[in-house]
């Protein structure tokens, strides 16, 4: 997994061929310069910042959330590095681990960051009625205070991926001020309080979020920026032109024509990253017709991934052949993978006596185009596919509520140990997944892999999970996600776009 800055010299080949290793090669530049305002383009409205009210942070929300709230550990390339924690020590019996916390850290409201704050955070999210999908943390039995700066994580069974799970920069690990949360939960939803390099200043609904530099940040010298503004620009053309004109400094861009155009612009750069993410459509296994595996298999076989890559993605990404992708060290090279086979799709539709369903998609140009192509793929093999449009910020709620038959989703590049992404999307240890599928086979494999210390055996177990996913057609993941951001060359220190997130902690401006 790598990040590449690409100029006018052919992004398509670079995206596909140059992704050879993990890590991040920083900008070859002078000493970082402090000051300035960075404006980041976001695709949609933010979902709010109180973990239990939002339930999921979409990629737009995760940007400002990661700047205001922090995690115990974090990934930098392939390495786990300390953030709010300084040490991780596993017990000899592997049934617990102690985490030492960074001393002298305070939340933005002046209250201390300590062991009680960490315990409060995880207990709140792991409570049965929290509404948060904590599958990633399901092997944790309890979290307890040892002393003011030491926390113990007690496990249900040995778990190789615990530190990796705690390093995931996502809703489950972003720690907010317990005082602020208890005092005004609704206020926190609109105005989060954390320990991060930036302090939350303002959320103008439908327009922007504004963050200011934290002058008391625990890491000396950071952040470099005085202010960060996350602008909401749902229309891809408007977003691209705003970056091009300099009104916006950097923004994520999914539309291939904009990415290819930007690569030819001398005053723009394309930052590309391919990890284990993918474009995903969920089947709701709890409702007809997708409670029948034949219906799910038919849709998977009807999806012409190469046609969509050629026409919509203009060759800037690749089809999937497993769950995690060839740039992952956990890639499953030789598993049988269910893919495009129109004859098999037609036969399954005939066997079902026809297949009719509704596809929920995001109401933007990319979502509408993808949905129209799926509709045509289905029609070519005898399916009747209807389309229902929802706004991007509403789509998360649609998936969580189960108000769909087939729904556009995102298979995120969670990174780190594969247990994290596989348990989050396909395991059931901490609640029902969005697809509402029977998790028994996958849960058994994940449980076995968590306690396995032999890496080769663990790898095979994760390939077995991928095989179950393909056999049962749990969801549709036909195309790898290559994440692209378009930026001006003066934006420096951009880390890898893991999970498509622009992390602003160490970014600086050379102008």
From TrEMBL:
<dbReference type="GO" id="GO:0015833">
    <property type="term" value="P:peptide transport"/>
</dbReference>
<dbReference type="InterPro" id="IPR039424">
    <property type="entry name" value="SBP_5"/>
</dbReference>
<dbReference type="InterPro" id="IPR030678">
    <property type="entry name" value="Peptide/Ni-bd"/>
</dbReference>
<dbReference type="GO" id="GO:1904680">
    <property type="term" value="F:peptide transmembrane transporter activity"/>
</dbReference>
<protein>
    <recommendedName>
        <fullName>Solute-binding protein family 5 domain-containing protein</fullName>
    </recommendedName>
</protein>
<dbReference type="InterPro" id="IPR000914">
    <property type="entry name" value="SBP_5_dom"/>
</dbReference>
<comment type="similarity">
    <text>Belongs to the bacterial solute-binding protein 5 family.</text>
</comment>
<dbReference type="GO" id="GO:0043190">
    <property type="term" value="C:ATP-binding cassette (ABC) transporter complex"/>
</dbReference>
<feature type="domain" description="Solute-binding protein family 5">
    <location>
        <begin position="80"/>
        <end position="430"/>
    </location>
</feature>
<keyword id="KW-0732">Signal</keyword>
<dbReference type="Pfam" id="PF00496">
    <property type="entry name" value="SBP_bac_5"/>
</dbReference>
<dbReference type="GO" id="GO:0030288">
    <property type="term" value="C:outer membrane-bounded periplasmic space"/>
</dbReference>
